[in-house]
Amino acid sequence: MSRLIHIGFGNIVNTEKIIAVVSPDSAPIKRLVQNAKEKGTAIDATQGRKTKAVLVMENNQVVLSALLPETIANRAQIGNGENDET
Question: Which of 10, 26, 45, 66 could make a disulfide contact with 49, Cβ separation 3.0–4.6 Å?
Answer without folding.
Answer: 66
